[in-house]
Amino acid sequence: MADSDLASLSSRLAVLATMHQKETVIAPLFAQHLGITVTVPAGFDSDRFGTFTRDIDRMGNQLEAARAKAKAVLEMTGEQVAIASEGAFFPDPMLPWMACGRELVLLIDQGLEIEIVGEAVSPETNFSHKTVDSVDAALQFAETAKFPSHGLVVMPSQNCTDSGPIHHGLICKGIVVQDELIEIVTAMLAHSPTQTVHLETDMRAMHNPTRMGAIAQATQDLITKIQQRCPQCGCPGFSETERQPGLPCSLCGLPTQLTKAAIHRCQQCGYVKTVPFPDGVQTADPGQCWNCNP
User: Fold this and answer.
1) Are residue 86 and residue 216 in the same domain, yes or no?
2) Do residue 116 and residue 153 come from a single domain?
3) Second label for 137, Cα 20 to 30 Å away, from 8, 213, 245, 275?
4) Are residues 185 and 198 in the same domain?
């Protein structure tokens, strides 16, 4: 049995690259389903890889940022297994006026030289922002943002852009008490040249229970993939890596862009398995066919 066999050894230790209390949902799931102990090293600064408030730009795309965190915590601790999480928020593809969240939870095992990613995508998020000109307007926004169970961020509106950067010293994060919110908004309004301030939801996990739930979902997806073994060599993480289009139209029979097969590939031995009709349907609706519905 390999020393890095995640699914079989209950004595494994994984280090989690976080400073935002994500271990509260990740660690119990790893212990329960895999027998793996998850620890958080003291002094690890995950904010240096990017912040939601845009004062520090994210390092690469979502997966690249998670990977950078995981490699950094491995280097810091000298351990073999690391976990890192990264979230992103964007307009829902089907309902662009609504926000959608995507959580990735990544595991790297240096012994096996594998990388496994769990994912959760959901419209269940309070992600939002608003520029206000009064305390009353701030309190109204707070109510829609699930405050005070979910934290808020306040900053001067003239320093806020969609892509940043924002002046470091003027961002007030982690506001979870109404009196504190009123005090900060009042002070910033008094010093604002435009008599406005910018509010947004605090998307850090420890101040956002809704996001923490999505991280738990992505962690469960990761665990499911870890438990999937390569039929040839037994390596963990034998999961879908590619989707092939070509599902035939139920009316004309021509191939469509919908998925006909999923490809599962082992990261260690390279074994490939093709799974036909992974979504449980064998023909496409004519409305999805370029020939029947050009």
Assistant:
1) yes
2) no
3) 213
4) yes
**CA separation for the pair 174, 162 (Å, rounded):** 20
CATH number reported for the structural domain that contains residue 111 in this entry? 3.90.950.10
The answer to whether position 293 is within a domain reads: no
Total H helices, total E strands in the chain = 5, 12
The CA distance from 248 to 111, in Å, is 43
Give me the domain span that covers residue 90: 13-125+206-227
DSSP codes of every residue in 228-259: -B-TTT--B--EEEEEEE-PBBTTT--B-SSE
81 and 212 belong to one structural domain: yes
The tally of domains found in the chain comes to 3
pTM for the full predicted model: 0.87
DSSP structural state of residue 187: H
Reported as a pLDDT band with limits 50, 70 and 90, residue 146 is: very high
**CA triple 152-18-16, angle to 5 deg:** 150
The dihedral formed by the CA atoms of 26, 267, 68 and 222, expressed in degrees to the nearest 10: -20
Provide the token pair at 258: 């919908």
18 with 121, same domain: the answer is yes
Q: Phi and psi for 80 in degrees, rounded to 5?
A: -105, -25
CA-based radius of gyration for the chain: 23
User: Of 95-104, 157-166, 177-186, 230-239, where does mean pLDDT reach its minimum?
Assistant: 157-166
Q: Is residue 235 part of a domain?
A: no
Predicted confidence band at 2 (pLDDT cuts at 50, 70, 90)? very low
Nearest CA to 44 out of 12, 11, 22 is that of: 22
| CA-to-CA dists, residue 30 to 36, 220, 223, 227, angstroms | 5, 9, 7, 11
Which helix (H) or strand (E) segment holds residue 133: the answer is: none
